[in-house]
User: What shape does this take?
Amino acid sequence: MTGSLLAFALFALVVTVVPGPDMLLVLRNCLRGGRHAGAATAVGAALGSLVWAVAAAVGLAAALQRWDAAFMAVRLAGAAYLMLLGVQALRALRAGAGPSAPAAVEPGAVSTAQALRQGVLSCVLNPKVGIFFVAVVPQFLPEGHAPLAATLLFGAVDAVIAASWLLLVAFCTDRLLGWLRRPRVARALEGTAGGALLALGAATAVEATRA
Assistant: This one.
């Protein structure tokens, strides 16, 4: 069991460090709400991953994947949410470009509660996380162990890894906030994050409708 757990943890770490919507949200919320908002986003994303692990353990994720209409609905909802976040970021960027705009991003623009909710929703509305648990976790399950308990354990490990990595991202970003909140840098980051979220959402929607 220990060997399987370590192998899964290494695989999960490799998957986690690849930049995605969760990391973009952590960076953006750190910039707009400070260290606590970034950390709350990281914890929220980890909780969302844990929700998918529980769903996979009881078979909901697998059932959802087989039910085309429901699966598409979740994917489109996730795409719409990412695009909403992207539009909000670009609108904030546009508002900050006016003649009466503040010189830099104002801290506190995102509360800890809002950041936590965004982190959870970003992960829960991403069915690819559910597919990960349904398709990948069984490859690491050791023989002689109950699949339900083992999947939950692997899910907890994945959530801890995700939280640790994203918290590290939030911590490193917080150390650079003085530089990141410079007007030119802040606008560039806000525009990049908004554009990336919008593009991810659009790509997810196109992929869902073609499936």
Remarks:
- DSSP finds eleven helices and no strands in the chain.
- The CA atoms of residues 15 and 149 lie 22 Å apart.
- The chain has one domain: 2-11+20-210.
